[in-house]
Amino acid sequence: MAHLALDAQRIARARTSAAHIARQVFDDMSRRTTTTVERATLRLMGIDGVDENAVPLPNRVVEHLQAQGLLASGAATAVAAAMAEHSLSAQAVAQAVAAGQLTLERARDDTAARSHAKALASQMCEHIAAQRAERSARISRCGEARTPWLYLIVATGNIYEDIKQARAAAQQGADIVAVIRSTGQSLLDYVPFGATTEGFGGTYATQENFRLMRAALDEVGSQMNRYIRLTNYCSGLCMPEIAAMGAMERLDMMLNDSMYGIIFRDINMQRTFIDQFFSRMVNGYAGIIINTGEDNYLTTADAFDAAHTVLASQLINEQFAYLSGLTPDLMGLGHAFEINPNLENGFLWELAHAQLVRQVFPEAALKYMPPTKHMTGNIFRGHVQDALFNMASTLTSQNIHLLGMMTEAIHTPFIQDRFLSIENARYVFHTMRDLHGEIEFKSGGLIETRAQTVLAETEALLAEVQRIGLPTAISRGQFAEIARQPDGGKGLDGVLSKADDYYNPFPELMLSGA
Amino acid sequence: MQEKTPEQWIKPYGDTQDDGRVQLSFTLPVALDDNSKEAARRLALAMGLTEPAVSHAADMGQGFSFYIVYGQCQHRVDLSTIQVAKPEFEVLDKDAVDARIAQRIGRKLVVIGACIETDAHTVGIDAIMNMKGYNGHKGLESYHQIRAINMGAQVDCEDLVVRAIEEQADVILVSQVVTQKNIHLDNLTRLTDILEAEGLRDKIILVVGGPRISHELAKELGYDAGFGPGSYAEKVASFAVDEWLKRHPAAALPQPAH
Questions:
Q1: Domain with B72 in it
Q2: Which residue of A has its CA nearest to B129?
Q3: Active site residues of B
Q4: How many domains does chain B have?
Q5: Of A264, A265, A412, which is closest to B180 when you measure between CB atoms?
Q6: Is residue B174 part of a domain?
Q7: Together in a domain, B49 and B99
Q8: What is the least distance, in Å, from the CA of B128 to any CA of chain A?
């Protein structure tokens, strides 16, 4: 396997800094919860559906608890108490609250309410564990796909059209299908309900859409004797709820970054840190591979100059993931092939960066993103750029390979764009299958020296972030050159301090049982 | 009387003048067989191509097939009759823009940029606004005489207008990249409506950019200028300065030195 000489001590020091950074944020944030964490908790207790105005019932119940001044104690106990007192299901409690027929109160017997909530939570955990087992069984029946896995996006806005395209993509050789969300969903403070046929630049993430696409991919996968992984977006203002829905419906991957929403969607930092912890915990328990979003840094900042911010962010994402109970094989740490094609030796630097990440995270399911920023509308040149990206991916043994589209920067992909992209990647991967085992990087050469430089810069950046703390670092624009303030951004109104009697049954069940 | 420009008829060139050779590729929503290949050829004929030939055809599964077709275009156009609308101004480099603002405007030009409403793709606005710029062309943040405020992605039109009032903006620059079902047109119209309603439309230089934006489209939507792909920061800045000076004729001459 291709190998660069890297200073192991330096990697260890960088990792230690990242662990301190993540731990400090985790300790600060563990005293708080958010409206969407509580809504996710209710979803996991069995509450779903919408009222007559299409407002989701989890939102109605959480708003009700806020109005009653009970949310700081956690939504689980108040709902569990009402269930026991009135002999109702969680769903029936939610419907009664939404209809104005039931007012939730503080549990009279807190211990009994907690144990009732925990019993309900255990049922859901069993369902999710069964889904995880189902995935493993399906994969062991047909065998795991060879890496790099081909990852394709569908984004028609209409789930039924998405299914057509996803089935075609799977048949052409895609290992992973991601359904891009409607642009703007990340800023909705609720999750839409039911099957949807209207979206912009993508399709709404709803539990029903998850279920429909899962069934379609299982069916086409069975026909081809392959397991097709399904991906969605666990980001934005409803991260924990999307995670809950994905866990219930056996999604396999979720975009889930600790900082992406803060930097690129101007979502409040406290909200994001709290939400990402809970959502990651659910993902980890469900065996869902998270995909982090470092590739996005390089669409804003320069891919050469900012290479160390990618590695630093990956190390931070890794430590946050450990805190949420994820194992390395579930960490799809992201990076990208985004160096300006006009830069002399740019391909060497791409190889250096990709191989560096490979060696720093030998067990992670690395996610490698194709060129986007320097795609121009010249589809012919774009196809060549994608071929070089494919080559870098196989040479550095990446795991999750998001296929580049030659029509990037023109439109959401046509069905033939995906077809040609898969043909390109399969050709390159096949013809170079074992090349990575045949090449060695020249000791002290350009590629090795570049990787060492980026590693040294990463160590220095993480030491600085550890000194000032992650919120301050973000407020100074140290990632992606975008500055965000701790009390700025969207969704801060959904952050609240936990009361002394706060209770949520899921952390103890999910963090111990994963 | 204006002198008539000589006609200049053109058509695609393959390897011989006026051979009209073109290539196209498309998908048909049927599985590949001999009939579908013939259908692809006839489609090309119906498009007006003579001697169409399917050079490549592949089945894509799920009842779709892909075709690459070559043929000869019969049409031609007279280039001499074409006059594309574009903003008329001199494109200056960064230093010249800074110098002109310092000399003629005498204070910093305030430019606010954003991707509005549903659009989350900041590549375009970042390329124009951010310090680093794009492809070696520095962004407006690097201009000494421009105060550049990049509000980023998914900015509500109302928020953008509020900020423009607070900052006493001279220029609003919006980017629309991702579009499906032409939602970018609704977004762009919404902004002009709000500016009209606030009585600000005439006070602000309103510019839009994006891969599907032309100057002509921008004018139709009520914008002062539109910039398509390949427009760098200095071009946008040059337009803004030129437009500002047109609206403030008193400043159009260099200020005497004190």
A1: 9-78
A2: A300
A3: 132
A4: 2
A5: A412
A6: yes
A7: no
A8: 11
CATH, residue B35: 3.30.30.60
Q: Is residue B85 part of a domain?
A: no
Q: Is the model's pLDDT at A234 over the cut of 90?
A: yes
pLDDT given at position B214: 87
Of B62, B66, B180, the CB nearest to A171: B62
Domain shared by B157 and B40, yes or no: no
Domain stop point among B23, B48, B78: B78
**Closest residue of chain A to B152, computed from CA coordinates:** A264
Pair of tokens at residue A298: 């390089």
The rounded distance, in Å, linking the Cα atoms of A376 and A272 is 33
Residue B183's pLDDT is what?
Answer: 74
The first and second tokens of residue A4, run together, are 């660069």
Domain boundary among B78, B111, B129: B78
Q: Are residues B120 and A184, on separate chains, in Cβ contact within 8 Å?
A: yes
| CATH number of the domain enclosing B142 | 3.40.50.280
CB contact under 8 A, A164 and B62: yes
pTM, two decimals, is 0.87
pLDDT, tens digit, for every residue of A29-63?
A: 999 999 999 999 999 999 999 999 999 999 999 99
Banded model confidence at residue B253, pLDDT cuts 50, 70, 90: low
A415 → closest Cβ in B60, B119, B154: B60
What tens digit of pLDDT does each residue of A453-482 get?
999 999 999 999 999 999 999 999 888 878
Q: What is the mean pLDDT of chain A?
A: 95
Q: Which of residues 176-195 of A touch B (CB under 8 A)?
A: 182-184, 186-187
Residue B61 contacts A, CB cutoff 8 Å = yes
| Domains of chain A: residue spans and CATH | 32-122 (1.10.8.1000), 144-447 (3.20.20.440)
Question: For chains A and B, what is the number of CB pairs under 8 angstroms?
Answer: 84
Q: How far apart are the CA of A406 and the nearest CA of chain B, in angstroms?
A: 13
Q: How far is A454 from chain B (nearest CA, A)?
A: 20
Confidence of residue A514 (pLDDT cuts 50, 70, 90): very low
- A94 pLDDT more than 90: yes
Does B164 share its domain with B201?
A: yes
Confidence check: pLDDT of B252 > 70: no
ipTM: 0.85
Helix (H), strand (E) at residue A142: helix A110-142
A43-52, B84-93, B190-199: least confidently modelled range: B84-93
Between B30 and A479, name the one with better pLDDT: B30
Mean per-residue pLDDT, A304-312 = 95
Catalytic residue among A151, A190, A204, A260: A260
Same domain, B108 and B202: yes
Residue A436, class by beta-carbon neighbours within 10 Å (0-12 exposed, 13-18 middle, 19+ buried)? middle
